[in-house]
């Protein structure tokens, strides 16, 4: 599973050949959520409120980069790392 970013204990992944809608996986400890790239909303799963807030903030900043990585993942191309939230 390709890791594209890591910050504050949160790891972000985009898997190859995933189902629509375009999304990424955010993992924080034993929690995991699938987050829509377009709406930056949880599709499934759960994250603690603070972790979710950080993920939403990060995803809003890097939405275009997430879209580009999604397209690359669907084409089985190498994904770009995305800057962490600081």
Please tell me about this protein's structure.
This protein has about 90 residues and is of the alpha+beta class. It has one domain. Helix content is about 30%, strand content about 30%. It contains two helices and five strands. Strands 1-2-3-4-5 form a five-stranded antiparallel beta sheet, covered by helices on one side. The model has no long low-confidence stretch (mean pLDDT about 95).
* Series of H and E elements: EEEEEHH
> Strand pairing plus helix content: what structural class?
alpha+beta
- Described by the principal axes of the CA atoms, the overall outline is globular
Q: Mean pLDDT, as a whole number?
A: 95
User: Which value, in Å, is the CA radius of gyration?
Assistant: 12 Å
> How many runs of DSSP E, i.e. beta strands?
5
Distance between the termini: 24 Å
* Multimer state: single chain
Integer count of domains? 1
By DSSP (H or I, 4+ residues per run), the number of helices equals 2
Largest sheet: 5 strands, antiparallel
Strand content: 25-35%
As residue ranges, the low-confidence spans are: none
What proportion of the residues is helical, as a percent range?
25-40%
Helix-strand blueprint:
Layout: E1 3-7, E2 10-13, E3 23-28, E4 31-36, E5 42-46, H1 49-61, H2 63-74
Antiparallel strand pairs: 1-2, 2-3, 3-4, 4-5
Features:
86 residues, alpha+beta, five-stranded antiparallel β-sheet, 2 helices, globular
Write a brief caption for the model:
The chain is α+β, with helices and mostly antiparallel strands and 86 residues long. The protein has helices at residues 49-61, 63-74, and strands at 3-7, 10-13, 23-28, 31-36, 42-46.
């Amino acid at each position: 599973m390709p890791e594209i970013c890591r910050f504050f204990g949160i790891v972000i992944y985009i898997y190859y050949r995933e189902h629509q809608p375009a999304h990424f996986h955010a993992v924080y400890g034993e929690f995991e959520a699938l987050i829509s790239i377009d709406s930056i909303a949880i599709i499934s799963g759960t994250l603690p409120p603070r972790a979710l807030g950080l993920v939403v903030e990060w995803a809003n900043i890097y939405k275009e980069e997430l879209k580009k990585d999604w397209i690359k993942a669907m084409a089985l191309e190498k994904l770009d790392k995305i800057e962490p939230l600081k």
